[in-house]
Amino acid sequence: MGIRSFLPGPLGFGTAPLGNMYRAIPDDEAAATVEAAWDRGTRYFDTAPFYGAGLAEIRLGEILAAHPRDEYVLSTKVGRLILDETEDPSARDLGEKGGLFEHGRPNKIVYDYSADGARRSIADSLERLNTDRLDIVWVHDVSPDFWGDEWLAAFDLARTGAFRVLQKLRDEGVIKGWGLGVNRVEPCELTLDLDEPKPDAFLLAGRYTLLDHERALQRLFPAAAKQGVDIVVGGPYSSGILAGGAHFEYQKAPADIVAKVERLKSLAEQYGITIKAAALQFSLANPVTAAAIPGASRPSRVAEDVAALGEKVPAAFWAALREEKLIAPDAPVPTG
Question: Residue 274 and residue 242: Cα distance in Å, rounded?
Answer without folding.
Answer: 10
